[in-house]
Fold this sequence. Notes:
alpha+beta; nine-stranded antiparallel β-sheet; 42% strand; 178 residues
Amino acid sequence: MIFHITFFRARSKKRKEFFMNKEYIDFLVRAKLATYASEGDEVGEQQADGSKILEFGENGLLYVDHYHGFNPFSGWERLVANGKTVWTMNYRGEIFSERLKKLPFSEREIYDFLRQALRNIPPKYPFRGPARLEKEKFLYFNRWQRNCRGFHGNEVIIARGSKYRIIYQLHYHGGIIR
């Protein structure tokens, strides 16, 4: 991992930098709140291959979230500006169903809590949810490194109780592209 970060920084000095401007970051937050993080039940347009696509656009900007599966699931998000993709994020997540057998929670309750966490997206780091969120039954943690230009992270949901157990985990990475 250290080699990768060093390599990225060494290359980035030689190239003209593209920075995520405030307009793009604010748009990402609005788009994520209007799509998967929204409070609606079913979101996304069903595709022939079983995947779903969520889109949000305004003022020449388009956000697309294309994902496959329910549990586990995998997908990618992209930000398109003036017809060109300028930012992407890939992710893969899973609820550990075997652990749920011993707990009084459903997958739906976990996904509902996840969407609550995603509605608390930090504007400076619009990847997933906040660093921490607590509710009656669950704890949400999100750890990331770096910034919108290039980042990676993971989020977990832990069931409260006599034994704290990780019942959900997602890994993500992404950044700007040219």
